[in-house]
Design brief:
Chain lengths: ~350, ~350
């Protein structure tokens, strides 16, 4: 048996094991993990549209180290689920080339830290090619970029770069975290004719949540209020929105009622929901996991000040990671990543200003 | 009698090949090559004059002397094949069948231009004709071409992508990545190095030990071919054969079409860094007199016919300049936010 044949027979075995789960997730509403939501979204879109394909390192035979593309190469073949060489620049750019000539590729950058290797193709080509060509080219490209820290993965495997892409006209940037949002927004991303950077949180893969039966999508540019409140607005996204909800629960015992907004969509960003909340609370805390300096929270605070200074009873407060490369030692790491304590501290600060 | 090439040039240009028409290239196509080469030459010399007169601006890189590469290559392709380009893209665009009026309008930054005035010389594109745009990032067209080939492969439509790039681009990381990946997957792409031996002011030998760039093909397990880039028939044959392999699922070929850059890097480049006296004899290699001599000698055309073609090319480009400067309009300010995203979506 050749290596390829061995690999495919392995994939068949894995596929048999996962087939039951895959079959279940489409017809009836059920509780699934973020990991499953990603797999299901891609599989359903690939069944629906023969031009959808996946390319990245270890997406095919291995099915991605977290199992996200498990079984897909066996089901759709090695041309629709392509195991790429370690050439981020080239396979991301190839995703662009394929998008421009009739396919709807999903590029997977295994850890978003390595998106740096594809920056030129993303920033100088993908983001601006439609504009440079006066609208004459289509770019239905999704770049999945697992981000986020935890687990002692250290400096080159823990970063969050959404702020960089927020700064590039022509891209869309999303960071959903619940299975419902992840599945719905990945489908939206695949069906969108624009390039989308899809930040999924590495530590959220096991988070569970309800998804409805059948096909559904979640639109971009719409934030969601996770927890209503009257005293302060906490604006967050991805894993930070999960931690913000936990912090809000704890703060309720202190008599502080927080309204927690999960942005889900970073570019376009739903400022309407944020300002509507601010009109009620007049105080805002913006939370990002990325290190604080130069991050998205700064841009959001600036926009809030620009659009609704009069609504503010106190200066906005940001929460972000420490401005250090992520250390390996897990106690040090825990110091760096924003947690519920830091969010609560920020809320108390904005309440007393 | 073929054009006489000085010995000093031949010694430095071992890939020189006298023009010999390929048997599968009918006379009309050979004459069409002559017309296209003239069209490019006229376009580029006009662009230079217009730029020096401040009538067009930004950056402009002329394809003078390299015409045989674009024209020879595109003659071997089907209309629905696609090409990717460089910052020196006017020649590719014309060779692939673009309208010179819309091209000139684009260089004038006009709304009627190919890119609605948003791209200019360095991003000129004619996507309908399969010209996937000029790009100012050296080497960035490589993955684009590989992606187009990947799509052709999955869709099974028999299309081929030709990736034009320069000697400068061969040292970009993506060059290696793209060829390796395309070769591993037998993708229908042809990698065509336009080796004019200069990356702006840096001669290739100063930054690459192996200056026979086509030899790198061995490292990727694909054929590597060196051709006289001033000879449109030689380029035609190499691309024809490479496209055939690609369409048969046998993967990419690396073609090095070697020339020497006869003018400056950009239109106002005075080339103080070069010994221009040493460049003068290389003009004997340029495609126009060689192709003219061939057509006359083989009696495929008369001198009058060829003169008419030349005049007509001049007339067409003069008309394009007049059209762009007198009939076309500036893009409205409202178009600033258009076409960043698809279907008229605007995110400010």
């Amino acid at each position: 048996m050749t290596a390829i044949e061995e690999g495919i027979s392995m994939a068949v075995t894995i596929e048999k094991e996962t087939k039951a789960t895959l079959a279940e997730s489409a017809p009836a509403a059920k509780k699934i993990s973020v990991r499953q939501a990603l797999t299901d979204a891609m599989r359903e879109e690939m069944l629906r549209d023969p031009t959808v394909m996946i390319i990245g390192c270890d997406v095919g035979l291995r099915g991605n180290p977290f199992g996200i593309t498990k079984g897909l190469m066996n089901e759709f073949g090695p041309k629709r689920v392509r195991d790429a060489p370690i050439s981020e620049a080239s396979f991301t750019g190839a995703g662009l080339g394929a998008a421009a000539t009739g396919l709807r590729p999903i590029v997977e950058i295994l850890y978003s830290d390595w998106i740096t290797l594809a920056m030129d193709q993303i920033v100088n080509m993908t983001a601006k090619i439609r504009y440079m060509f006066g609208g004459k080219i289509n770019v239905p490209l999704v770049i999945r970029a697992p981000f986020g820290a935890g687990g002692g993965n250290a400096a080159q495997h823990s970063q969050s770069f959404e702020a960089w892409f927020n700064h590039v006209p022509g891209l869309k940037v999303v960071a959903p975290v619940t299975p419902y949002d992840v599945k719905g927004m990945l489908k939206t991303a695949i069906r969108d004719d624009n390039p989308v950077i899809f930040f999924e949180h590495k530590r959220a893969y096991s988070l569970e949540g309800e998804v409805p039966a059948g096909d559904y999508t979640v639109p971009f540019g719409q934030a969601v209020v996770r927890r209503p409140g009257t005293d302060v607005t906490i604006v967050a996204y991805s894993m930070m929105s999960v931690k913000a909800q936990a912090a809000a629960q704890q703060l309720a015992a202190e008599g502080i009622e927080c309204e927690v907004i999960d942005l889900r969509s970073l570019l376009p960003l739903d400022y309407d929901t944020v300002l509507k909340s601010l009109a009620k609370t007049n105080r805002v805390v913006v939370v990002q996991e990325a290190n604080l300096r130069g991050g998205l929270a700064g841009d959001i605070v600036a926009e809030i000040v620009d659009r609704a200074f009069d609504l503010l009873d106190a200066p906005p407060v940001r929460v972000g990671g420490l401005n250090v490369p992520m250390p390996y030692n897990m106690r040090l790491e825990a110091e760096v990543i924003p947690n519920e304590e830091k969010i609560k501290k920020a809320v108390r600060r904005v309440m007393t200003n | 009698m073929a054009i006489d090439i000085p010995q000093e040039v031949l010694a430095k240009f071992p890939c020189y090949t006298p023009l010999a028409a390929p048997p599968d290239l009918p006379p009309e196509q050979q004459i069409e090559m002559y017309r296209k080469i003239h069209l490019i030459r006229e376009f580029e010399t006009n662009v230079r004059d217009l730029w020096m007169a401040n009538r067009i601006y930004g950056l402009a890189h002329a394809y003078v002397g390299a015409e045989a590469i674009a024209v020879g290559a595109c003659a071997a392709l089907r209309p629905d094949d696609c090409i990717t380009s460089t910052h020196r893209g006017h020649g590719h665009t014309i060779a692939k069948g673009a309208n010179t009026r819309k091209m000139m309008a684009e260089l004038f930054g006009k709304y009627e231009g190919y890119n609605r005035g948003k791209g200019g010389s360095m991003h000129i594109a004619d996507v309908e004709h399969g010209m996937l745009g000029a790009t100012g990032i050296v080497g960035s067209g490589m993955p684009l071409a590989v992606g187009a080939a990947m799509a052709a492969d999955l869709l099974g439509n028999g299309k081929v992508a030709v990736c034009f790039h320069g000697d400068g681009g061969t040292n970009q990381g993506v060059w290696h990545e793209s060829i390796n990946m395309a070769a591993a997957w037998n993708l229908p792409v042809v990698f065509l190095i336009e080796n004019n031996q200069l990356a702006i002011a840096t001669e290739i030998g100063r930054v690459s030990r192996e200056t026979d760039l086509y030899k790198r093909a061995v490292g990727y397990g694909i054929p590597g071919v060196l051709v006289d880039g001033f000879n449109p028939f030689a380029v035609y044959e190499a691309v024809r054969d490479a496209a055939k392999l690609a369409r048969a699922g046998e993967g990419p070929t690396l073609i090095e079409a070697r020339i020497l850059r006869l003018l400056g890097h950009f239109v106002a480049d005075d080339q103080w860094y070069r010994n221009l006296d040493a460049v003068k004899p290389w003009w004997r290699l340029e495609p126009i007199p060689r192709l003219r001599e061939h057509l006359l000698r083989t009696k495929l055309a008369s001198a009058e016919q060829l003169d008419t073609i030349e005049k007509e090319a001049k007339r067409e480009i003069a008309d394009a300049v007049r059209y762009a400067s007198e009939e076309c309009t500036d893009p409205p300010v409202e178009s600033l936010y258009k076409d960043i995203y698809a279907a008229g979506e605007v995110i400010v």
